[in-house]
Each structure stands twice: as C-alpha cells, then as structure tokens.
Amino acid sequence: MLAGAIISTTFLWPYIDSKEGLWYAAGQPTLALTGRSGYVISMCIAVALGDGIFHMGVVIIQVCYEFYTRRKQKHLFRLINLWTGPEIPTMSYDDRRRTNLFVQDRIPIQVALGGYIVFATISAIVIPVLFPSLHSFQIGAAYILAPLLSFSNAYCTGLTDWNLASAFTKFTVFIFGAWTTSDKPGSVIAALASAGVVTAVVNTASDLMADFRTGYMTMTSPRSIFVAQIAGTAMGCIMGPICYMFFAPASPGLLTGHTEYPAPYSSPYRIMAEFSIKGFTMLPKHSVSLAVSAFLGTILINSVREIARGMNWRIYRFIPSLMPMAISFYAGPSYSFDMMLGCLVRWLWTTSNKSHAELFLPVVACGMIAGDAFSPLADNVLSRLNVQAELCTRIFTKKEVSLVAGYLANIP
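The line above is the sequence of Metal-nicotianamine transporter YSL7; the predicted structure tokens follow.
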C-alpha cells in the first residue's frame, strides 16, 4: 500500500494532471469518468481485476489438483486449507481447532450454486418488470459478471479491510451503459439498475466474507452466520423500501441538494450513466491503454511472485501485492500511511515481547477501532449543539495556496 501511494501521488497522478487540457478537457467534475477520475477508476479496476482473476485461477487449479490427488490415492482426506496446507502442523492448537470446526460445518457447493442459479433466474424475470428498459439477458450477464467482481472485492477486503464496491459500481455502470444505445429510452435507468444488481452481489459477498472471518475467530458455525446473513438481507429488502416511502413524501426534491435528506451521490452517478451510454469514446485519451497495461502488468508480477514462491526464492517476500497498491491508487496516501504506522507499532511490540503482543494486540486494535468510530458520533453531537472549533486547520495543495494568497492579496 505504501508503494502504491508513493507511485500514484508522486509520479502517476501528477503526470496525469499535467495532461489536463491535452488528454482530457479541463475543469471536469471530480467523479466524472471523462476527467482524471477516468484514469483512477480504470487503472484501479484493472489492477483489482487482474489480481482477483489471477488468484481465482490459482484457487481453481489447486482445487482441481486436490480432487485429482484424492481420486488417485483412492482414499478420503480432509481438505483443511488450500492456501496454508503445508503450514498446518505449525499452527497453534486454537488455530487448528478453529480450522477444523470451520471446515466441518461448511455449506455444500450444491446449495451455493443452486441458490445462486435460482435467485438469478428470479431476478431475470422480476427486475425487467420493474425496469422495462432492462432485458432478461442483461440481468443474466450481470449475474455472470458478479462472481468475478465479488471474488476480487472479497479478496481485496480480506487483504486490506477496504471495500472497493464503489469502484466496481462505476465500472459496471460504464459497462452496461456502453452496452445500451443512447437513443434507446431508459438507457440511463438500465445502466444504473444493472449496476445496482452487480453492486448488491459484490457488497454481500464482501460482507459475508468479513462475517466468516469473525466466525472463524470466534469459532461460530459458518452455517449460522450464513442463515443470519440471509435473515438480515431479507429484512433489508423490506425495511429499505419502507424507509424510502416514509422519507420521500416528507422531503420534496429528494434527489437534489435542496432537501433536508439529500442523496449526494445520486446526481454524480446519473451523470456517470449518461456519459457511459456513449461508449468508450467518453473515456479520456489513453485511459484504456493504461488500464490494459496495468492489467497485464498485474498478471505478470503475480506470476513472477508465484514462480519465486514455488522455487523457494526469498525474493518473493519483497515482490509487492498488487491489490493493496490498487487501494492506494483509489483511496489516496493517507490510509496507507495509517496502515504502515500500525504495522510498525505491531512489529516493534512483537520484537520486544512476542507473547505479550500476541495477547494484547487484538484488544488494543479493538479499542482503537471503537475510538475511531466514536469520533463521528462526538462530532454530530457537537454540531447539534452548535459548538464550533475555535481553530480550524486545513492543508492545501500548491495550486490552492496560490489561489488563497491571491484572494487575500486583493482584500482591501
């Protein structure tokens, strides 16, 4: 993540900014894919997809090899963990017990695939009724694309605890918007609705994987977690429309900024969909070439790392993981520096007293997460009480500093 932050903020984005007016029109909105955001989203998605597709392929190959070995040896054995199989004997007693419990109570693959096919079929029938501009084959395509994006997003969330669903939403809006024609009525609605289907699947997969991780740590049954997730999703399908029905009549202009309950992202995403129906012509110059290069580079670097790992070359430890680099491309450098500082504290603590660190690190981390979540609550309470800070500090870019200085110089 730190390498991605340094590369993007020091070299890549300043170079893209220097091409403003040449590669893309000046003064583009922040979220518009026609400006700098087009390069950010396309390269971030390219790296995330490349990393996700590569590791999905590795998992499929390992699963096929394990089944082949099982059939060849003609005896059953428990498939503990495909990624850390050789390291199982070195696990602690608690980790081995967690792993055995988690694998024993897993969900049958027939149930997973069958349920996905059934609900995809229901969606392909019902959603075109709700949105006539959508066709059943487009919903089918959305459900075919969703597992690939879901794997990439879940893998990214597991590595970095960062959800890239918003970036994948922009990607799907563009894909389905470019699929339709601009002269067809309802093209914008079709792009937004189909992207909403994919986003729902991607978000659910990421949340479910995070819940499975918690269940693994707390020795909770994966089936219980899955049933609870189904119940929560069903309640959301009911409560979400009900809440909207309550808010919408009491808030005229809900999709504008002139309301008590604004939806600030509605207008940018609609503008994005309106641009997307123009196809690849709306993307800024060279953005597709850079995205393809990032995708192929991700596959190449991952291949080199896996080869080095298989050959037991120690250099593979120093080959960076590309998915966290994509996070830094998308989210900026501040998040990566926070992670780096936390890793440094963990390393120092573990070096000085390993047993003490293993015992208290999770507790300290939970306290810091809870404290960080409490800060917005305190800010909201202070804002409700009309309490304002006596001093406000803000860091400007070099361009903004010159504008502020010019404004202050013209004040009489």
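Note on the example: The mean pLDDT is 80. The chain has 14 helices and no strands.
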